[in-house]
Write a structure and sequence with these properties.
Quinone Oxidoreductase, Chain A, domain 1; 27% helix; 17 strands; alpha/beta; globular; six-stranded parallel sheet
Amino acid sequence: MRAAVQRQYGGPGVLETTGLADPRPDRAHAVIEVRAAALNWHDVLVRRGQYGSPLPHVPGADGAGVDSETGAEVVVLPSLRWGDEESAPGPDWEILGDRRHGTYAEKVRVPRDCVFPKPAALTWAQAAALPLVGLTTYRALFARGRLRAGESLLVLGAGGGVATMAVSLAAAAGAHVAVTSSSDAKIAGAAELGALGGVRYDRQGWVEAAVAMSPGRRGFDVVLDPVGSWADALAAVRTGGRLVVLGASRGESVTLAVRPFYFGQYDLLGTTMGSARDFEGLLRLRAEREVPPPVIDRVFPLERAAAAHEYLESGRGFGKIVLSAEAEGNA
C-alpha cells in the first residue's frame, strides 16, 4: 500500500509517499481501506516529534473508508482505549497516529470497537473530517461545557476545524453563537453556518465588542477557547459562566487573577478528544438535527501530504483539509 511516511521529525518536507506492507485484520482489529484522511493540528505536533512517535511513522488520526472484510462504509473513531470513566481518559488512552500507524495511507489497522458506520449523507472527505474534530467539539460543548438550547456561546477563532464544527453543532442545538476572527471573510463564513456574527480579535477592544453581542451585554454563558487565550476569553464569560479550553496554539501558559475568578463563580474546564459514548452522542445529534456537513477547505492527493501540511500551517484555510487516497484532489 501507499502511505505518507516520516522517517524523522521536522517540517512538512519529512512526509514522503512510499510503499509499505499491507496491514492484516485479526480478532481484535479491522483493516480499513482508506478513501480519505483529514488533517488536524495534532498531526503537525506528531510530525514535529512532540509526542515521540516511533519512527518511521505514518501520521493521521482521522479517516473514512471501507471495511476490508465486510465492505461496509465506515468512519474511524481516533480515540483509542478511553477507559471506563467518562470524566477523563484512562492511563492506556491514545490517539490514532500517535504510537501506531495512522490514516495517511491506503489502509489502516484499528481496534474493531473504533469502527462506526459512515453517515450516509456525507462524502468521503466530509466523513473523514468528522471524527476527531466532531468528537472533540461535541465533548467540549455538551459533555464538559453543558451547553443548552437558548444559551449563548462565543467561539474564539472562526476558521479552524473546531471552530466551524462548534458553530454548526451549537447552532443546531439551539444556542446563540458568536465568533472571533482576524478575517471578515471567516466571520461571514461562520454566519453561513449559523453564527449571529462576530468580532475582529486583531482590533483593540475586541473583548468589549464581543460582550456587546451577548444577551443583555452581560457576557456569554460559554466561551470555547481552542487557542489558549484564557485571560481574554474569561473576560467575555458572564458571571457564573463556563470557559472551556481545548488548545494552546497561541500560548502555552497564562496568568489569571485569583480573586476575580472565584468571586465571579466561573467554571474553568479542560477537555480533549472524547469517548465512544461522546461519539455516539455526536452521531445522534447529527441524525436528529439539521447539522451542516463538516466544512472542507481543500482536498489534496495522498502524494501531496507535505503540501497539505504547509497549507494547514499557513492558517489561510476555512474548515478542514483532507487527503484523498483515491483521487487527485483539487489542490
